Structure formats: structure tokens, C-alpha cells
Amino acid sequence: MAWYRRSQRLIFDSFRSYTSKISQPRNPNIQSLSRTNFHTSPFKPASKISQISQPIFTNPLKQNPFLDGAKRFYYVDRNQIRHFKPRGYRRWFQNPRNAFVVVLVVSGFVITLYFGNLETVPYTKRTHFVILSRTLEKELGEKQFKQIKAQFKGKILPPLHPESIRVQRISQDIIEALQRGLSKEQVWSDIRYAPEINSFPNESNAHGTVRALSDKIVEEEKWDNEDKWHKEDEILDDQWVQKSRKEGREKGVASQTGHLEGLKWEVIVVNEPMINAFCLPGGKIVVFTGLLNHFRADAEVATIIGHEVGHAVARHSAEQISKNLWLTILQLILYQFFMPDIVNTMSNLFLRLPFSRRMEMEADYIGLLLVASAGYDPRVAPQVYEKLGKVVGDSALQDYLATHPSGKKRAQLLAQAKVMEEAFDLYREVQAGRGIEGFL
């Protein structure tokens, strides 16, 4: 039985020593004695015992690596209430210095982006923001031109068709006038017909064909010089153009025409009743036969082609893409405060549509001078737009709810003295054989 008692005592002592190691003392400031001095006399000074003792009982909170430094994530106020500290970017922005640095860097980036992409429109001297590069704009125009040719495959008139020859000749006159207006010595490729890589037809044959086609409509090209346009009828609604040109002359700004260099001009005529024509970036001109059926005079066709080329001169496509980018950002901000339908309606009425109508008028001004430089009577232009309004159907609200001004409004604006007089003077110089420098 003695061996049984001894083994029971050893088990009890082992269990007690084990539990004593993991138990927490009542007073955490009291440290246990080391095993080597466990039987030291209690009357010995405590200071000497503490010098040679090693801590056995420790605070488990200090040993837990997950709880170590937890105080970094909260703070205690004067009422001994713990509050969580903000984490992530919000904590970083609480420092005024960091917030100032961020605002300064973002502002510098926006200012550099904006002023680094400002350009001056030829003739109007209007400064506009264009973020789209010239190369990308040209590539987009060529890609869209290929899609149009694929879409109307089989309906594109051959290059020797009389209507194709006529449109090519008029387009060639407009492009040559633009070349003179650039006032730069550069090599321009001849205008080509897109479906086949053929040069422009012989000039004498082309003029003869067009002359035969125009025998029946010679009377439509005649214009009463003073009966269709009077100074007293002028509507002074081009103040922004005159003001912009005046400021441009005072500042000595130069028009940006680099996007017009090295273009391969192409033209196609599509056999469709659609009353439309346009010029894509990169010098791609598309005319529909529906337009030619209503406008038979060369000066009328030249007015429309000059207007479309004016869009390419002013880079309106690239500018519209840049404007839409800023408008989209503005709409996303306003969506947080207003209903999306209200935001979309207001942005269209007060931002998108007025901007589109102004671009159309700017293209009218540039096209008018292109027509005059090409040797076509610019006084035909008001009649063309008024006739176009009747063909497509104008409405009283078109000047406010459409992308294009009404034909009547465009006719009134172009018939005013400040615009028409300049174009007519240029036209007379060309007719006298002195129209060399152009107008840009």
C-alpha cells in the first residue's frame, strides 16, 4: 500500500504544479519566485528575492500577439469612453496636410490636361477643348468610312457616273480652296473616288459632262444680286463669332490646322433617297442622291459640301466626344442629388443641344467662306438652308429642341452683313483672279 500512497501523492503534486503555471494570480503585480528559490525564507527581504527571481505568472493579454497593440485602433476620451479610430483612406485624409497635397496634385493634373489640349478653330478663332488625339480621330473616321461602304455595298455609284463626276469636281474645288486657306506649302493628294483607286477624271471631260448635266438648271444658278439680301434684314446673332475673332486677333493666336495635313480625301455618292451628306474625320465625304435630286445647282451642292467640310476643319467630332466626357462626369455627380430623368432632360436642353446648334452655325460660317474661296456665289447659301428646311420639314420648336437650327434661322443668320459681306468680298477677289491667300 505504501507504493500506492506514494504514487497518488506524486500525481497530486504534478497536477497542482501544472495548474499553478496556468493560473492567473489575484494581484498581477506580484511575481512568483523561481523554482531554485521556492523554499527561500519568507523573512528574507523581498527586494533581493525579486532580483534573482524569474517571472512565472504573466498577464495573458500581453502574451497574445493578436491583442498586442490593439490600442492603435481606438482612443479614449475624457469620459473614459473608447472610440474606434477610422481606418484606410479616411484615416489618411484626416490629416489636413495629406488632403491639401491630394487637392493640389489633382488640380494640377486637371489644369495641365485642360490647357494642354486647347485649340483654336480656324476663322472663328474660338478656343475649344479637344482631348482626342488627331491620330485617333483620323482612325475613327476611316473605320466609320469602311463601315459605311460595307453597309451601302452595291449602292455606291461608279466613279464615271455623271453624278459622281459632278460631286467630285465640286469637292475638288472646295478642297483646293481649303488648301489655299491654310497658307502652307504642303503636298496634297488628289481627291479620289473610294470604290476604285482611280485618279480624278480628266478635267476637260469632267467639266463637259457636268456642263451637259447642268444645261437644264442654268436658270436655277442665277441669283439676283441685290434682291435676295439687304442690310436692313440683318439679324445680329453672330456677336460671339465677331467677339471671338476680335479677341483672337488681339492675342495673336494661330489657328490649329495640323489635323488637315496629309489627308487622303475620298468621296462617294450613295444611290439612296436619303437627303443627307457628311464629311468624316480624315477627309471622307459621303453624299446621297436624295440630296442631289433636290439641289441641282452646283452652288447649292457646294454650299452643303462646304458646310460638311467645315465640320472637319473645326474638329467638331473630336470636340463633341470631349464634351460628352465632361457631361457624363457631371451627370454622374448630379445623379446623387436629383432624379436621373431630370438630369438627362436638363443636360440635353441646356448643354448638349445648344452646343450642337452652335457647332452647326460655326460650320455654316466656315463653309460659307470655303464656298466663296472656291469661286461659288456665297449668296446662294441662305436660299439653300431655307429650301432645306422646307424639304425636311421645320418646326417652331426646332431652334430649341433639335440638334440643328431651323432652315429659316440659318438663312437669316447667314444673310446678315458681317458674315455675308466678308464672303462676298472674297468671292469677288476669286472671280478677279486674286483669291490666292484664302481666309484661314
TrEMBL record:
Q: One Pfam family name from the record? A: Peptidase_M48
Q: Which UniProt keywords apply?
A: Hydrolase, Membrane, Metal-binding, Metalloprotease, Protease, Transmembrane, Transmembrane helix, Zinc
What Gene Ontology cellular-component terms does the record carry? membrane
Q: How, per the record, is the cofactor bound?
A: Binds 1 zinc ion per subunit.
Query: Where does the source fall among the domains of life?
Result: Eukaryota
Indicate the transmembrane segments per the record.
Answer: 99-116
Output the InterPro entries linked to this UniProt entry. Mito/Outer_Membr_Metalloprot, Peptidase_M48
What is the name of this protein? Peptidase M48 domain-containing protein
Source organism of the structure: Buddleja alternifolia
